[in-house]
Amino acid sequence: MADTKREIERKYEATPETKLPKLSKVAGVSAVVDHGTAELDAVYYDTAELRLAAASITLRRRTGGSDAGWHLKLPVAPGVRDEIGAPLSDELPRSLAALVWARVRGADLVPVVRLRSTRRIQVLTDADGNPLAELSRDAVRAERLDDGEGRTAAWDEIEVELADDADPAILDAVEQKLTKAGIRAADSPSKLARALDETGLAAPRAALDTGAERSAEPQTAGDHILVYLREQVVALLAYDPGVRRDLPDAVHQMRVATRRLRSAFRSFRKVLDRTVTDPIGEELKWLAGELGVARDQEVLTERLRAGVAEIPRILLLGPVRGRLRIYTAAHGAGSRRKALTALDSKRYLALLATLEALLAEPPLLGAAAQSPEGALPKALAKDYGRLADRITHALELPAGDERDLALHEARKAAKRARYAGEAAKSALGKPAKRFAKRMKAVQTVLGDHQDSVVAREALRNLAIQAHAAGESAFAWGLLYGREEWAAAELERKLPEVWAKASPELLGGVLDG
After folding, report:
1. Which of 208, 248, 283, 377 has the fewest CB atoms within 10 Å of its CB?
2. How many other C-beta atoms are found inside a 10 Å radius of the C-beta of residue 197?
3. Which residues contact 204 (CB under 8 A, 6 or more apart)?
């Protein structure tokens, strides 16, 4: 069984002669407790192309110390990683292998570096003896295992890792003390990165993350759109392990990345060749659909639970909460299996490979060479026009299923327009930011309306099930009525929100 912890640490340069300052003088630190010395032996695994290292991911099998076993570290932010551990075994545990599936993409994981460290451990504690941080002083010896030459390197370093539930401010206080003593922050983010660098081969940059080499500042319309596409691919890959670990919001964020990519392909067809991007868009649509089953069920469950929680207890006739638990459990289990099956498929890996190829050799059209101010507003104007047509059509229809469907189509157009504005924000600045904000407001109203449509269908099914079981359907009918009222209110609100998104109020962003 894999265990997870959030690792927040900072690394510092050291030599055998480096003298630590008196850390018991750091504000909040009452004592520095010596925990002795440990001998650690870790073998790091990666593909021959160092795909994990390129993405700042480390995978190791370590013996010695208090946490011997397999460790997978996934980057969260600078100096912050999620460490997922599994018991020591000869083979890589399947639970960890699954989390790097999208990065490895079928390539073998082989030993690349061996690190042996002599670690002296000190724990900084408060007045009550609670740990605040662990300071480790490591003498490291690195050996390359994948180059046939066995190149080696050696160095000393200091690590300061935040204790569980401790205030991160303690790291700032310790760093201030170390800096005054002349101890500077390390250049390398991890031991593995330093080992690769000092044995003659720095980790490559991830092709899927960065694409082909690009200028520091995007200049053309194509440059800006490619930066946006790369950001979405990075997000897609970053949330993959979170979906597999069933982390909150991971499915939603991964699905958003797929939608943003697909929307960019469709909105900026004058920049990117649609004969190349349309097939990729279809694959992204498939992936979003597979993930969407889990996400949609998640949203629906939260809405139904909130609705039930608002009903006074005296009106909860029958086993309402029990029936809801049964309903959500039955639908939730299948949706999660569907999402994981998609992520484990060859089709998904092929999509990732295609995205990598797209970023390496983007299919740019003539408009890509234009200035952003010339090309991008035209795309935003087209998306805006599509949304305007759909909202006008929906509002002309009488209330009912046909209007619900038309409003749902308008919601899709609003989302696409919003994403186009976000993609253009880095190039067009405040006008595009304002455009995206107004489109999001329209999308929110339409999205809430669609959530109500979906909730009403679920409530109708729950009422039928309750009636068939001889239970009272009163609570489900009450919730259905509330959802009808909420949808009607949103329909009344829509014209007001839409009026605020008129071209006159969008600062000229549609003038292209």
Report:
1. 248
2. 15
3. 49, 50, 53, 54
Q: Which residues, listed in sequence order, are joined to residue 46 by a DSSP beta bridge?
A: 110
pLDDT at 210 over 60: no
The answer to whether residues 49 and 204 touch, using CB atoms and an 8 Å cutoff, is yes
- How far, in whole angstroms, is CA 448 from its chain's centroid? 23
- Sign, Cα dihedral of 223, 224, 228, 234: positive
Terminal CA-CA length for the chain: 56
Residue 292, pLDDT above cutoff 90: no
Contact 287, 257 (CB under 8 A): no
pLDDT tens sequence across 428-447: 999 899 999 999 999 999 99
Average pLDDT, the chain: 91
Please state the rounded mean pLDDT for residues 445-470.
94
> How would residue 218 be classed by pLDDT, with cut points 50, 70 and 90?
confident
Judge whether 406 and 392 are in contact, CB under 8 Å.
no
Q: 386 by DSSP, 3-state: which?
A: helix
Q: What are phi and psi of 75, to 5 degrees?
A: -70, 140
Letter string b/e over residues 127-151, b meaning 16 or more CB atoms within 10 A of that residue's CB: eeeeebbbbbbbbbebbbebeeeee
Amino acid letter for position 101: W
List Cα–Cα distances, 401 to 120, 418, 443, 460, in angstroms.
Answer: 69, 26, 19, 15
C-alpha closest to that of 32 among 17, 43, 21, 48: 21
